[in-house]
Design goal:
By secondary structure, the protein is α/β, with parallel strands linked by helices. 30% of the residues lie in helices and 21% in strands. It has helices at residues 32-40, 76-89, 109-116, 148-156, 162-168, 190-202; strands spanning 4-9, 26-27, 30-31, 47-50, 65-66, 94-99, 123-128, 134-144, 172-175. Bound molecules: guanosine-5'-triphosphate. Keywords: Cytoplasm, GTP-binding, Magnesium, Metal-binding, Molybdenum cofactor biosynthesis, Nucleotide-binding, Nucleotidyltransferase, Transferase.
Length: 203
């Protein structure tokens, strides 16, 4: 049976929130990242956090903190790569990524991604907007560790856009969410945080 670990992506700059760590903001009596840990944790065989800067600020979470190995804020794929390298060192087959600013992620994320995986073992999550259009969520994926050197080479070559790389490798798409509730609602701005408080009652 394949062994899957989880990486929570918190390596961004949160410019729309005015800086800091979005995941550490309070939501529904916890922090945003506590919701992420509660939902992802039971689905994987262990978790790490991808974050840049001083890891001491996350000490209370009890998770290993993985910094980007590439300079200049290369985007979420750098965090995915850090997670793949960590999972490979742990002897796992794949890592599932989840963004630290997305408190209502699906409780069946890993099973859904595994069921949708393409021939290379890659899959991205997706959900529909109010008009029924399907949107892929590049920070929620299943990433086989066997592809990590390919991803590293692509990033070192300047690739930044997730779906360009995943399309090249025939990633599957796993659809989540129903009845108008988007489990991938993420907190980018102070207004989003207010909206998330209202959603926390339903989620
Ligand atoms: N490791 C890593 N993760 C990143 C980087 N940029 C964004 N992310 C992560 O990718 C996810 C989506 O990020 P965005 O919301 O687009 O970017 P952000 O930096 O969090 O916020 P903005 O600066 O307001 O766009 C979040 O989980 C971020 O932590 C990066 O350069 N490195």
């Amino acid at each position: 049976m394949s062994r899957v670990l989880g990486v929570i992506l918190a390596g961004g700059r949160a410019t729309r929130m005015g800086g800091g760590d979005k995941g550490m903001l309070p939501l529904g009596g916890q922090r945003i990242i506590d919701h992420v840990v509660d939902r992802l944790g039971p689905q994987v065989g262990g978790m790490a956090l991808n974050a840049n800067g001083d890891p001491a600020r996350f000490a209370g979470l009890g998770l290993p903190v993985l910094a980007d190995s590439l300079p200049d804020w290369p985007g979420p794929l750098a965090g995915v790569l850090a997670g793949m390298d960590w999972a490979a060192a742990k002897g796992a087959d794949a890592v599932v990524s989840a963004a630290a600013d997305t408190p209502f992620l699906p409780r069946d994320l890993v099973a859904g991604l595994q069921a949708a995986a393409g021939p290379s073992g890659l899959a991205l999550a997706a959900s529909r907007d109010a008009e029924g259009k399907l949107w892929r969520h590049p920070t929620f994926g299943l990433w086989p560790v066997a592809l990590r050197d390919d991803l590293r080479a692509a990033l070192e070559g300047g690739l930044r856009k997730v779906v360009i790389w995943t399309d090249t490798h025939g990633a599957g798409t796993a659809e989540f969410g129903a009845e108008g509730f988007d489990p991938f609602f993420n907190v980018n701005t102070p207004e989003d945080l207010e909206a998330a408080e209202a959603l926390a009652v339903r989620a």
